[in-house]
Structures are given as C-alpha cells and as structure tokens.
Amino acid sequence: MIFNSFEFLLFLAVVYILYWFIGYKKYSWQNLLLLVASYFFYAWWNWKFLLLLLLSTLMDYLFAFGIASGNKKKSIFYLWVSVISNLGILAMFKYYNFFATEFHRIFALLGFNLGLPILNIILPIGISFYTFHGLSYLFDVYKGLRKPVSSVIDYGVFVSFFPLLIAGPIERANHLLPQVQNKREFDYNQSVEGCRLMLWGLFKKVIIADSLAIVVDNIFNHYHHFQAATLILGAIGFSFQIYADFSGYTDIAIGVSKLFGFEVLSNFKFPYFSRDIAEFWRRWHISLTSWFKDYLYIPLGGSRVGRILTIRNTGIVFIVCGLWHGAHWSFIVWGIIHAIGFMFLLLRKKNRIHTNYIVAFDKELPDFKESLKIILTFSFVTFSWIFFRLNNLRDSIGFVKQILKSSIQKPLQFCTFNHYGISIIYYVIPFVMIDWWLRRDERRLRVIPNVVLRNAVYFCMIIAILFLLIIRNKGNNNFIYFQF
Question: pLDDT averaged over the chain?
Fold first, then answer.
C-alpha cells in the first residue's frame, strides 16, 4: 500500500473517519486505533515484516527501563545491548550479504576460502527508518532527556506511526512522543493545510517524479548508447526525480500527520537553491542529517577535537550515511564525494556561512554571485547522484567516462536537444519555477488569493493526478526511498 494508490486513499478515509468520530473521546483510543492501522498498513506489504517490527518495538520499549535504572553500569550495559541488538538486526538484513561477499573476495586473493553462506532474505521495508526511530529514543533516555514511556501502545505509535513508517521523516522522541501522549483535538485549518500538502506531494510524485522516471530510467539503463548532452540532462533529470519523489513523499507524510493532529518536523527546505554543499545538507533529508550530527558526529567529538580528528569525524559520518542508503560500493563513493565537498569548506572555515538565510529571501532573483554558487553546488550534487542512481561502481564510472569521451568526440552536440532532453526540460523548468516561488515557506502551498482561481488550480491538479494514477496503475511507481 503506497501513498500514490487508490488503496491508500480508501484506507486513509476509513481510518480518518474512525479516528475523529469514534476515537475522539480519549487519546488512548486514538492511539490504539493508530497502532492497529499502522500495523495493518505495514502488514499490507508483507505480514512477516510486521513480526520484525513488533520484535524491535518491544525490545526497545523494555531496554529503555534498564537504561533509565539509575545505576550507571546497568544503564551502559542495557544501552550497549540495545544498540548491538538494533544494529545487529539491521546489519543482518541489509549488510550481511554485502560484507560476506567482499570478505570472501579479499581472502580469496590471499588464497583462503572463507565459505561464508549468502542468505536468501528480503530487506524489510522501512527497517532503516524505524531502527533509527528506536535508537534516538534510547539515546535520549540514556542522556536523561526524557523518561521511558510507560504505555507500550504510546511507544508503538511513536515507532510505527504509518505516515512516517516507511520513509520518514525520522522523528525525535522529544518532539513526537508528547503529541502521542496527549489528546488531539480536531482542527479544521490544520486538516486543510494537511490536504494541501498531500496534494502538492502527490503532484510532485505522480506528475514530476514518475514522468521524469520514464525518460531517466531509459537513459541510465542504456547510457552507453547516448551522447554526453543526453547523459548530462539525464543526470539532471534524476536530480529532480529523486527530489520530487522523496520530498513529495515527505509532503504527503506531513500532510497525513496533520489530518490526525500531529505536527511533524520538516525534511526538506529547497535544497537545490543551496549555495554550498554544507547548506545543501542542512536542507536535504534534514531528519537524517540531524540524526547523524546528534548521535554520531557530536559523540565522536564533532569539530571541537582539532582539525585532523574533525576531518576524520566528517569522513566517518558521510561514509556511514552512504552505507545507510545501501550495501553497495557506489553508495560509499557517493558519501565520500560529499565528504570531500564538505571538508573543502570545513578546512577553509566556510561551512557555516549559509545557516538560516534563504537565498534571495527579500528579492525576486538572486544576484550573479549567488546564482553561480547555486549552479556550482547543484552541479556537484548532480555528479554525485550518478553513483547513487546506478548502484554499481563499474556502471557509474562507465557513465562518467561516456560523458567525457562523447564530449571530446562530438562537442557540437551541446547545441541541440533530442526528445529525451526536451522531455526532461519540459518537467524540470516549471518545477524549478514553482519551487522558487514557494521557497519562503516549505511547509505549505502559498494560498492563491482568488478563490475561483485557487479551486480551479486544485481541481486541475487532482484530475491530472488521478488520470496518471489510472494509466500507470500497473507500473512500478514505488517511492525511491522505500528501498532504504
């Protein structure tokens, strides 16, 4: 059951009606309903995955009491047991085969045969996200930022709340749990804003991302048949495909959460208008970036331990970030590329120049210097996406080689566009223009003052989304980040 499906719309309508018309009297009833609905939503994919989610939830719920025991040795023991258990489960399903294969290759070169078995297992959907949910809760309990949750139902809702369960945002216990533990009152304006966000998210996914995917997939899957101009436009197309896809999911998740009275943290703040790579990571997948900063980078010493160790800490964070996305060398290289870009700013002490100020906030267009910074940063990010997209280091390098080779052999190709390039430009340019128009407020669509025009725009968006959902119903329209 995915957000861009008719099954989900029916599921959401039923849960919404039950939630506000039956479960409104007590928050405990609301939570029980949400927990049952979330487990049903997750079991729709594969009921066996639900058993793992239940095990992870119960395990972390119980470990938290041991961590909060007041005895330091006991707390540390339970913290380590919980971390090893969570990461052990994640590693078994997500990384075992990768490392088993790589160790086998290394020892084979030395003349040894390890004989490690390859497991025939399926990666449980959303495991990286709900594992990080649970770990953040346990770390906060250990640091004394919050007490263990007494109700297993309340904690279960925090971990498995269905809008966030599959691909985040990765919520923090101190932000989401207090909302879970208090009664939610129906707020008409909050629900309307939630519907707007859902509509905009579906538009980005169905109209932009899925349309770009048709062209982009063909270019990346047959890159050796295309010239440099088409490959570069294909890389640009994927940059906007993954952005529209993932930020579209996030908008829908935040919108659905609002329908049930929850306010969820932002996950994107117009990252492609960033002026350097440090600003990009403050605006892209914010919940994951902040998680690594708080629970990995700072515990390692952050930037307070001297230049050499700061470089080490930065490298570790980005490599782990790459591995978090998948057990492939291409993801590791993707992380290293971003680490190099970030370290370049870090060594020059320019990684915190653009922290809060949105580009051209008080004017319509950026100046020449800002525009150049945005273009250079976007180009760097787009280059790194090549490694992310192909999931194979050999193909990623082959893609880059094909661009270089074709550029030298046929330089005049950049003066024309084929139908692939035209298709990408057709979707990208309007999307960039809309994103620029909305850049001052990432949480909701700017309301069009004229009621008739506003409703006409909403109506056209709904018709276009429904039309494409129907004609593409049998295709693979999953969100990209579902694989992580």
Answer: 89
